[in-house]
Amino acid sequence: MNRNDYPAPLETGKAYDEIADWFKAGMEASPCGIPFLEELMAMLPVGAHVLDLGCGFGRMMRVLSDHGFQVTGVDVSEKMIRLAREYVPEALLVHGDASVFCTDETYDAVLAWDSLFHLPPERHRGMISRAAALLKPGGVLLMTSGMKEGYASGLMNGVMFRYSTLSQEEIRRVLRQNGFVILKMLQDQAPEEHLVTFARRKLF
User: Fold this and answer.
1) Which residue, 28, 98, 94, is CA-closest to 63?
2) Which of 7, 92, 109, 170 would bridge with 50, disulfide CB 3.0–4.6 Å?
3) Roughly how many angstroms between the first and final C-alpha of the chain, as a whole number?
């Protein structure tokens, strides 16, 4: 597979539309990522506003809201957004491509959990730049990616999904280029090459 046959975000959204109910049933009680989300919450002021780019059916927003945080979610899957409206009715939800989401609002934290790697590789840098623009100075980005540059694919409930990632070194470079201080990068879900990154936007 190469970048010429990589699906556009809207195609990925339609693929998630097909599996949304199945995905929610399997992931609703999953602890995946929750310890990192708890770590993020501990860094934020009471009542902070968190933007979830690629929010899915709202699993992580539900946890954030239950702990008193304001939440806004963006997802390219229309069906996932419909499920999120039921699951986290207090959230502000936007159906659209998270990598080009624009607003005058800025946030205390941006969450991009298992969403960045659904983008074509040439759009990873832009989404990191977009996250920086959406954060308040001192705000925190929690994101996941792969650990080695390349592509992968796999089936979920019979539907094909494709993934891409920059190298860990390139992610570091792009974060620093966009005014982030990297707080932590670590492998999660070993032996899977699943990289979790915490980064803080510089104050000036």
Assistant:
1) 28
2) 109
3) 41
